[in-house]
């Protein structure tokens, strides 16, 4: 036998394989699989992130899901306007207006009960003016009819003014002021009439005081603020 090694030569070069084994594959050529190194790859696709780094869902997605839409601030556009508080001065003025309506109704009723008194006053006036008494009854009846019609109109105006001013209508306060001025003029005119009785004079004085009190309450500072707030445009 020879003393040479059975596989490979002395210089480290591989020799022929023993019988029954395939020849070894040179380095760098195809063949058996080469074990992967433990370090990071030098090229190609990046390695997958280690387990536990992803937060779930798509990468770079904000945590906590989508943000909710901004809420409307209280009192912003679209909110119903708050109810305007009605001052006490308006309440008092409205109550006095309803009292004026009641006073007008009483005045209508008294016109029928005072027919005899009115007739006597008219007769005195006709005799003073040297006029015929033939039309005495016609004049008295006409006066009563006029009193009833005017009284009904007064009742309607009192109620209409009460409701309109209670609602804060600025024009209603102006109309009430004009009517109050007419009431003062009517009172002054009644003082010059010879047909004025004690009862009608008393009613005229009460109406005058009532009108003055109503105008006082309607034009108070808090009342003016109430009318301004009610007349302000709503969105």
UniProtKB/TrEMBL annotation:
Domain of life where this protein originates: Bacteria
Transmembrane segments: 96-118, 138-159, 171-192, 198-219
Compositional bias (Low complexity): 1-13
Pro residues bias spans: 14-27
Keywords recorded for this protein, A-Z: Membrane, Transmembrane, Transmembrane helix
Region (Disordered): 1-80
Protein name (Swiss-Prot/TrEMBL): Uncharacterized protein
Native species: Luteipulveratus mongoliensis
């Amino acid at each position: 036998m020879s003393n040479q090694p059975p596989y490979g030569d002395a210089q480290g070069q591989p020799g022929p394989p023993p019988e029954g084994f395939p020849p070894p594959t040179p380095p760098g050529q195809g063949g058996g699989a080469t074990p992967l190194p433990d370090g990071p790859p030098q090229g190609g696709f990046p390695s997958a992130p280690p387990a536990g780094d992803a937060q779930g869902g798509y990468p770079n997605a904000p945590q906590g899901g989508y943000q909710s839409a901004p809420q409307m601030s209280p009192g912003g556009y679209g909110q119903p306007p708050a109810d305007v508080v009605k001052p006490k001065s308006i309440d008092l003025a409205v109550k006095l207006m309803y009292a004026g309506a009641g006073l007008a109704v009483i005045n209508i009723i008294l016109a029928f009960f005072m027919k005899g008194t009115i007739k006597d006053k008219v007769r005195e006036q006709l005799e003073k003016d040297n006029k015929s008494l033939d039309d005495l009854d016609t004049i008295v009846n006409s006066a009563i009819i006029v009193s009833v019609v005017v009284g009904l109109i007064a009742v309607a105006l009192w109620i209409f003014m009460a409701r309109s001013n209670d609602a804060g209508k600025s024009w209603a306060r102006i109309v009430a002021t004009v009517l109050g001025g007419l009431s003062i003029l009517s009172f002054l005119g009644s003082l010059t009439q010879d047909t004025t009785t004690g009862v009608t004079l008393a009613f005229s004085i009460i109406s005058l005081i009532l009108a003055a009190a109503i105008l006082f309450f309607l034009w108070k500072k808090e009342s003016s603020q109430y009318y301004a707030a009610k007349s302000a445009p709503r969105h």
